[in-house]
Protein 1
Amino acid sequence: MTRSIIWAIGGGKGGVGKSMFAANIAVGLAKFGKKVIVVDTDLGGANLHSYLGIKTPKVTIYDFFLRKASTLDELLMDTSVEGLKILPGSNEIVGMANPRYFTKLKFMRHIQRLQADYVLLDVGAGTSYNTLDLFAMADTGIVVTIPEKPAIESAYGFIKASIYRKLLTVFQKNLKLHDLIDQARNPVNEEGIRNVRELIQRANEISPESVAELESTIRAIDLRLVVNFVQNSHEEAIGPKMVKLVKRYLSISPEYVGSIPFSGKVRESLAKQTSLLMEDSEDEASAALVFAARKLTVPRKSEDDSTKKEPEKEDLTVPSVAESNSEK
Ligand SMILES: Nc1ncnc2c1ncn2[C@@H]1O[C@H](COP(=O)(O)OP(=O)(O)OP(=O)(O)O)[C@@H](O)[C@H]1O
Ligand SMILES: [Mg+2]
């Protein structure tokens, strides 16, 4: 049994186009001839099915949590696109948004068993542990933002929270390092650590034997960035600036996938319970989504070692605000 490639789509802020992007990319991949499963893991805010021609799902992941289904495979629904199936989410019960820890682990194990070329997870908004853990389990994390300051801050905060969550999980048995990472994720911490590079420097003092693993864990994080709702050249420039910002403070190099223009057609297609690429629409947003789907299938370029380099300056005015972003 080969393992499917898992992509997670997140971004911190609500309403920035995560589900729109997930649905269209899923359709795009299926049209390239890939077998695709898209999973609505937005526990409590599920609406991905609306982008894929399904009015009221007959089954949802809720059936898995209720143990009416013993595998997620049983809950997959076909779509009108060949090769594309959806596992719909559920809004049925408020408690769904917070499954218990072991239930979440079981759910994640079962996601890994899904058989397809690509499994796409729409993880929804926010930086709850459930969202971050689903995001962290993916081979590639795709962050969607829009070119507005609150969304950029949320996306930065989400990326930061996801990196620290990953490091805390990987080093949970290394008590000294775990404690240091836990402190460092707070913008104000006793150690005075201001960014990931300083975390590594401090780790080198207290647990030198773990630094190579710490650096390789950070290097292995495969993150991509998408800017949606773009309307002019100034907004076009925000994506690359944000990449520099993340490199500078978080020592990872996200790959910029590109921008998706604002398009009235997105809303029109949603009103018809469908998505742009299902309709073979030929506008700019569709072209950008096809381009993004293609680009995402290309393995990311081998990275320079951002964990060691003195980071470049950029001119996006977010770092001070973003650095004061606090996660629980
Ligand atoms: N490029 C775009 N042009 C125009 N409208 C868009 C675009 N992208 C998304 N929208 C619209 O914005 C709204 C929010 O999109 P979407 O539901 O994908 O956001 P989301 O990030 O998944 O939200 P949530 O956090 O609630 O899950 C929808 O009405 C969608 O049709
Ligand atoms: Mg959504």
Note: Confidence is low (pLDDT under 50) at residues 319-328.
Protein 2
Amino acid sequence: MAQLYPDAHCSLDHHSPLELLISTILSAQCTDERVNIVTKDLFQRYRTAADYARAPLAQLEKSIQSTGFFRNKAKNIKACCQTLLDRYDGEVPRDLESLVVLPGVGRKTANVVLGSGFGIASGVVVDTHVGRLSGRLGLTQSKDPIKIEQDLMRELPRDEWVNFSHRMIQHGRRVCLARKPRCEVCALADICPRIGLAETAVELPATKSRVAKKLSEKSRPAASKHGSARAGTGKPATGGPLRGKQKARGATAAQRATADRQRRS
Ligand code: SF4
């Protein structure tokens, strides 16, 4: 994964932990692209926790309306920033315990802020992409984000927790799509058991530890031919067309059965 997505990073635009905190609250049920459009103006108008805390609620609601659930988000942002003023001198705290009790901040948001705002690996961010991919890759059997995170934290080295999420999110957006995963061009096809995908499920000797080890391998300077060469270009980082042994490993069960029949006939 590190070779496929060497530049994977948080896709919410921000210049400070406070901006990242606000962006992450806004990103609930909303795309990062939409949040970035909204925060472009928002961050010009509101620069400190005090600015948000003192803003008239209706004005803040209007500013963030297009991100959806804007009434609740505006209320949480104001209350959250008021708490920052009351308890932390307007600064964002650097520990999980303090963050998760702020209004509108759950474990996922706290992990995002600590990981991408402060560079502190407090846990693994589990969003919809990370949850989906972790299941398909056999890294977890749970659908509960908290349990998924615990499974991932057990399997991955701590210094990979932050970047692992960024890479999984990139892969989920570009290749392992929710409705139509592009397994035929996926660079992980040789280690992925494709759990939950009835039409393409394959039997692989892939254990959870083996998959986790492979996924958390550090990037090497020499980029893989089809992986990092594409990273940052906006094009899908796939394994490219499958060839030879790779093709045999990456082929679906149905494709392999067809090939066997053709060989026998
Ligand atoms: S092989 Fe398919 S299911 Fe597995 S990670 Fe790739 S796209 Fe997703």
Note: The chain has 13 helices and no strands.
